Amino acid sequence: MLASTAMQLNLQCFLLTIFLFPLHSKAGRPAEPVYDTEGHELNPGEYYIIPFNCSRGGGLFLSQRNTSLPIFVRQDISQLSNGNSVTVIPVTNNLPAAEQSVRLSSNVRIQFVSCATCLESMAWTIGDPEGTDSRRHVVAGYSKRGYGQSNSQFRIEKNGHGGYRLVFCPKVCKLCRSACENVGVFIEGGKIWLGLGGLPLAIEFKKK
């Protein structure tokens, strides 16, 4: 009787090990890389963020809505425009910059590469609520001391109909679950602006 019970317990442990091992192995794998339009893994080089499959409008660039900072991120209406180039930098990767690759669902910082007239950081940030609808724009030009804050971190996810989408997942505290929002576009004053929510924006990354 005792021998039979022991055999049953050993069999249960064996089956449980077989069941759990693939899950553990899969969980230990790194997330899938993000790829550019040529099929290469995204790294901290320079890229243009353009609409997926030229679906709507052109690339992204900086545009002022008034005479003060911050500067707002806007989409060109012309499909022929690549916009301004950006770098996409992983936040938690300990590898040297030249060896880093950007992966899905990982926190990244996005920063415009060149701005001859800019004195502040060109890192993307989610701005404060504005207007009657409390719209939160994607902006740049805040002080560099705010560069490492959570409102400057984004994630890249696969889009259901092809391409990728940008997601903002603010972290309120270490033990809190983030409430993620898609970065979309909305039309205001005849111009296309980036912000939280709005119309969906499927994107891809084109190497400069």
Task: Explain what the structure shows.
This protein has 208 residues and is α+β, with helices and mostly antiparallel strands. It has two domains: 1-30; 32-207, Trefoil (Trefoil (Acidic Fibroblast Growth Factor, subunit A)). Helices cover 12% and strands 28% of the residues. The protein has one helix spanning 2-27; strands at 46-51, 60-63, 71-75, 86-90, 108-112, 125-126, 138-140, 155-158, 164-168, 181-188, 191-196, 203-207. Strands 2, 3, 6, 7, 8, 9, 10 and 11 form an eight-stranded antiparallel beta sheet that branches. Strands 5-4-1-12 form a four-stranded antiparallel beta sheet, with no helix packed on it. The longest helix is centred in the first third of the chain and has 26 residues, at 2-27. The model is unreliable at 13-27 and 143-148 (pLDDT under 50).
Overview features:
alpha+beta; Trefoil (Acidic Fibroblast Growth Factor, subunit A); 2 domains; 8-stranded antiparallel β-sheet; 4-stranded antiparallel β-sheet; 12 strands; 12% helix; Prot_inh_Kunz-lg; signal
Short summary of the structure?
With 208 residues, the protein is of the alpha+beta class. The chain is built from one helix and twelve strands, in the order αββββββββββββ.
Low-confidence segments, ≥5 residues, pLDDT <50?
13-27, 143-148
Overall tally of domains: 2
**Beta-strand residue fraction:** 25-35%
Number of helices: 1
Q: Determine the mean pLDDT.
A: 79
Q: At CATH's second level, what is the architecture of the largest domain?
A: Trefoil
Helix content: 10-25%
Number of strands: 12
CATH topology of the largest domain: Trefoil (Acidic Fibroblast Growth Factor, subunit A)
Radius of gyration from the alpha-carbon trace, in angstroms: 22 Å
Using the alpha-carbon principal axes, give the shape. Answer: globular
Largest sheet, strands/sense/barrel: 8 strands, antiparallel
Helix/strand/pairing class, anyone?
Answer: alpha+beta
The CATH top-level class label of the largest domain: Mainly Beta
Spell out the helices and strands N to C.
HEEEEEEEEEEEE
| Through-space gap between termini | 72 Å
Organism: Rhynchospora pubera
Protein name: Alpha amylase inhibitor
GO molecular function: endopeptidase inhibitor activity
Signal peptide: 1-27
